[in-house]
Design a protein that fits this description.
Strand 3 and strand 4 form a beta hairpin. It is globular, with a radius of gyration of 18 Å. Strands 1, 2, 3, 4, 5, 6, 7, 8, 9, 10, 11, 12 and 13 form a 13-stranded mixed β-sheet that branches. By secondary structure, the protein is mainly beta. The longest helix is centred in the first third of the chain and has 16 residues. It has one domain: Clam (outer membrane lipoprotein receptor (LolB), chain A). It contains four helices and 13 strands.
């Protein structure tokens, strides 16, 4: 069985709204003012929160070449990711799927990616804020934690330049809570966002359709467990290699690519 383009669908910036830092705006159809207001409110909440944690229950699709098949088959997998954020510079993300495990540590001076199932890790210089370190991860190693657009200081500034159109779909229920359901189109993908319509504009669900990939695979995440009063120990964001762990070069041997073949 061959897994195709795992990195595209699981370990990159999974809001799916950027092609990396510094994307230039591409003017398109007008965005509904309600949609812009909702997206800005989410961005403000995320940017102004100094410490918080949340998790996401994820389903995603891979295109696989099964034995004897001449075309790929779309297969669905599950994953979970947990975020712990302490601004301005500390972040820890734990990711576990049916196919792999990854831990990301940002401590203000370095970024570390750890693969527990392989006992392998890579560390690179990534000083400064969370934004700076995530950009360094992308630029130097070509990888970022899933859903990490949400923890930038200004998510709106990252997302808006790539949006071609934004539509207000309606007020729909997520786990008993009314949520604003909004739809965005971009050059290569569509994505939907459900935002709590109550006093706190929490992102509740994200669904991305990668239109230009074979068979248009879908990524979906239900977000919950939001805690804005959490406290962390100093050790939370410090990576201590376990016994026998192997260090690899994050640039020469990207750790995110070690378990699957690329098949695009």
């Amino acid at each position: 069985m061959r897994h195709c383009a795992v990195i595209t669908c699981t370990l990159l910036v999974l809001v799916g709204c950027t092609s990396g830092p510094g994307t230039d705006p591409d003017p398109g159809e007008p965005v509904d003012p309600r949609v812009e207001s909702i997206l800005r409110s989410v961005s403000t909440l995320m940017g102004e929160s100094q410490r918080f944690s949340f998790h996401a229950e994820i389903t995603y699709e891979e295109i696989e070449m099964l034995a004897g098949a001449t075309t790929g088959t779309k297969v669905q997998y599950s994953a979970r990711t947990d975020f712990r954020v302490s601004r301005p510079e500390k972040l820890r993300v734990s990711y576990q799927s049916d196919l792999e495990q990854r831990e990301f540590f940002l401590d203000g001076s370095t970024a570390t990616i750890f693969a527990p199932d392989e006992n392998m890790y890579a560390t690179l210089i990534a000083s400064g804020t969370i934004d700076d370190a995530l950009d360094a991860l992308w630029e130097k190693a070509g990888v970022a934690p899933p859903l990490s657009d949400l923890v930038y200081r200004d998510p709106y500034a990252r997302l808006a330049p790539n949006i071609i159109s934004g539509t207000y779909v309606g007020l729909h229920d997520i786990d008993g809570a009314p949520c604003h359901h909004i739809l965005f189109t971009q050059e290569t993908m569509d994505w939907q966002l459900w935002v709590d319509a109550g006093d706190t504009p929490l992102p509740r669900r994200i669904v991305i359709t990668y239109r230009e990939l074979p068979q248009a695979p879908v990524f979906a995440a239900d977000l919950g467990g939001w805690n804005f009063e959490v406290s962390f120990s100093a050790e939370t964001f410090v990576f201590e290699p376990p016994e026998g762990a192997i260090e690899v070069d994050a640039v020469a041997t990207p750790i995110a690519d070690t378990t699957h073949e690329e098949g695009q």
